[in-house]
Each structure stands twice: as C-alpha cells, then as structure tokens.
C-alpha cells in the first residue's frame, strides 16, 4: 500500500504535467498572427473547432459567384473550404471557343454542363491504349445535365462548337487543384529538349516561331465555328 507522502508526490507530479497541456493550446490559439492569411491560419489550426472560431461570421460560409472576380472557389478565394478537400467552379464557355489543352495536377475534375453543348477530349496516363494499341483519347459530347470526369493529371480540353454560350459547373477533389497549360509548359523547355521530345520533327530554328504562336489565353476561338456563326475573331 502506498504511503500518504507517496500519494501526495504522485498527485503533485500529475498536476505539474497536466496543467501546461490544458493551458498551452488556448494560449497558442489566442496569439495574434497578423502576418498569416486567414487561409494559412485555418490550415495550422489545431482542430476543426478552432477553424470555426476563425470563421466567426455566417457570411464566411457563402461564396458569391455573381460578384466574384474569379470563377473558382478554392481555399484561397473561399477559406471556408480549408479542410474539406474540395473546390468548385461556375463558368461559361463562350460561343465558338475552346479551353486550351490543360491539366489539374492535384485534383480530379467533375465537369457538368448546365446549358448548351460541349465536346471534350481527355488523354489518360501513358499505357492506356485504344484497340489499335495507340494512346487512348476519350471523346465525349455533353448536353444539359450531363457530366464527365477528368482524372487528376490528365490532359483535357472543352470545345463549344455552337453559336450560343455554354454554361457549366465543375467540382474538384482538392482545395488547390492547380492549372497547367500543356503547350506553354512544354515549349518553356530548352530547344534541345523540345527537339528531342518531338523526334526532331520541329527544326531548331522553328522552335521560337512555335513558342510565339501559342495563344496566351486559356480560351481560344474555333475558326470553323466562327465562320458558321458569322462571328468575328477577337480575343476573349
């Protein structure tokens, strides 16, 4: 049996170790960190409860696409998404336009068409072959209420071949999905790397011409559609 002195010592030691563990986290959360963005503070918060304390206003949980300067709700533009593992986009693909070939390095995209018509092409990872043993390209035609999936890292593009805008929504499986333009990134490599990659089919002296010809916009016009719809080509 333990003596009274021993029991008192054990209780004292327990108090010494227990009190700081209760006090320290509260002190840490109350400490002002003005140099950190709200998104950063949410990311390092100890618990989900602490994140709710940082998002103290009800309007922190509303993202207004109609008044936003960007069509993407991600953890930077909509901090309430921190910890959710998701992001979202609402947008419009103008008549006779194509989203330049791109990929999302950190997220799978679920693309839903709300109005209009959109044609999509998606290239899966290497090793996914068609019936002829060539790299498979997945083509879809979407109408209102139809959805397709672009797995993370897959090259894909969307085309509106008609004379009216097409409205879409897209969900992403990451709070920061990323966006990479395939042609721009490929032709940012050295001339030797580009020439080798394309099997010397592009002469070294022509590489800069190709670089200069690559559109800088994410959305470009589709020439055949412009002719069909009687529209003038212009930058979007």
UniProtKB/TrEMBL annotation:
Database matches in SMART domains: Cupin_1
MF terms (GO), sorted A to Z: manganese ion binding
Transmembrane segment boundaries: none
Stretches assigned to the Cupin type-1 domain: 52-208
UniProt-listed SUPFAM superfamilies: RmlC-like cupins
GO cellular component, one term: extracellular region
Pfam families membership: Cupin_1
Keywords from the named record: Manganese, Metal-binding, Secreted, Signal
Broad class of where this protein is predominantly found: secreted
Signal peptide: 1-23
InterPro entries: Cupin_1, Germin, RmlC-like_jellyroll, RmlC_Cupin_sf
Family assignment from sequence similarity: Belongs to the germin family.
Protein name per the record: Cupin type-1 domain-containing protein
């Amino acid at each position: 049996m333990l003596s009274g002195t021993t029991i008192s010592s054990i209780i004292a030691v327990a108090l010494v170790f227990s009190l700081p563990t209760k006090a320290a986290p509260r002190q840490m959360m109350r400490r002002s960190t003005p140099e950190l963005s709200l998104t950063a503070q949410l990311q390092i918060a100890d618990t989900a409860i602490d994140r709710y304390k940082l998002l103290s206003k009800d309007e922190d949980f509303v993202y207004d696409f109609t008044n936003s300067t960007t069509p993407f709700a991600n953890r930077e533009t909509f901090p309430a998404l921190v910890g959710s593992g998701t992001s979202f986009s609402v947008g419009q693909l103008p008549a006779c336009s194509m989203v330049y070939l791109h990929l999302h390095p950190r997220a799978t995209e679920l693309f839903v068409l709300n109005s209009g018509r959109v044609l999509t092409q998606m290239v899966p990872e290497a090793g996914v072959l068609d019936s002829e043993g060539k790299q498979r390209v997945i083509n879809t035609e979407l109408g209102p209420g139809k959805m397709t999936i672009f797995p993370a890292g897959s090259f894909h593009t969307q085309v509106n071949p008609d004379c009216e805008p097409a409205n879409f929504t897209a969900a992403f499986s990451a709070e920061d999905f990323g966006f990479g333009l395939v042609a721009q990134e490929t032709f940012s490599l050295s001339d030797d790397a580009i020439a080798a990659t394309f099997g010397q089919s592009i002469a070294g002296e022509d590489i800069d011409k190709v670089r200069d010809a690559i559109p800088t916009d994410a959305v470009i016009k589709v020439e055949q559609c412009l002719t069909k719809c009687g529209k003038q080509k212009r930058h979007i």
